[in-house]
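Extended Data, record TPM domain-containing protein
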Amino acid sequence: MSSFCKKTILACFAVLLLMPLLIIGTVSASDQKQYVYDHANLLTKEEIGKLEALADKLGAKRKTDFFIITTNGTNGEDIAQYTGDFYDQYGNGSTAILTIDMKKREVFIAGFKKAERYLDSSRLNSIRNTISSDISSEHYFKAFKTYITLSSKDMGIKPGVNPDLILFKWWFQLIAAVAVAGIAVAVMLFNSGGRVTVNGQTYIDNRTSDVIDQYDTYIRTTVTREKKSSDKDSGDGGGVTRGGSSYSGSRGSF
């Protein structure tokens, strides 16, 4: 058999071995979910890839889809309605959507299903306010990355708790951990030096000591009564229903 035939057989054999891997890779790529719909062309392909990967990673952790939509118009619809229609078509379960309309210079963030409870209007306002300066400065990739990161973080904090509390700041948690460790070390060092056995009875001879006199003086008792506050005026903000989908939302201009 000639060397040419041997090389041809080896090449065919290699293709047969690699074919299943090529098919699996093609299927996996086609099955990958799309999270960024950049109709306004605000991002590069590389930036879209990074945002897709981040949304996929954090979305799997929170069991929530994080979508980004950019558009040059909403076909005459209100931006909230446009976002709701997108969810009805592409959403499934817990979902957060950031929509930017470059034509009207509007930005809208919404949470659906589980995300509606965790990303309430207050938290969404905080996220939108955080990214507004980057959007205005046309730093869209940074703004979108921050939106995904903060949304994922808030999805891990119990609803009704302010995520901006100092308790959730990493630097405060670091200081607290160092302080607790320092106290623990101090207690161990203190106990390692032996115990002090001197107390109030050390220098008292109970056989020769006695109570000379005792008396109690009652001055007065004061009782203050306050009216109990009523809870009837307190209330919580709810979600919005539009186009068949209930959601929490935050909108603004840039």
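Summary. Confidence is low (pLDDT under 50) at residues 22-30, 168-172, 223-238.
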